[in-house]
């Protein structure tokens, strides 16, 4: 189908159980991750030496700056 699996799962979930139930499932299990997003956690773990860093205001601002926000 040439579509990202994470994106497809998110759409399928909304269509099969509805938006409210889909949101509840995502709250429990997390947002479906796309192929492009999968590399980010690995790189964060590598950069932080697996220290399980908190999302601070500074790290959030830095991350948003990468995307011009």
Mind telling me the C-alpha Rg?
15 Å
- Tell me what portion of residues adopts beta-strand conformation: under 5%
Unreliable parts: none
Number of alpha- plus pi-helical segments: 4
How would you spell out the order of helices and strands?
A: HHHH
Q: Please indicate the count of domains.
A: 1
Average pLDDT across residues? 92
- The separation of the N and C termini measures 32 Å
Q: Structural class of the secondary structure composition?
A: mainly alpha
Bulk shape: elongated
Number of strands: 0
Biggest pleated sheet: none
Assembly of the depicted chains: single chain
Q: Helicity level, as a percent range?
A: 55-70%
Keywords for this entry:
69 residues; mainly alpha; elongated
List the helices and strands and how they pair.
Blueprint: H1 5-17, H2 19-29, H3 39-47, H4 57-66
